[in-house]
Amino acid sequence: MNLKRHGWYLRYAVREDIEVQVWIPRLLCPACGRTVSLLPSFLIPRFQRTVGFIVRALGKKLSCSRQIMGFYWHRFLGNVNRIIAFFRDIFTGLTLPKDPKLKAMKLREMMEDFPPEEFSLLFHQRFRRSFMAI
Question: What 3-state DSSP class applies to 67?
Answer without folding.
Answer: helix
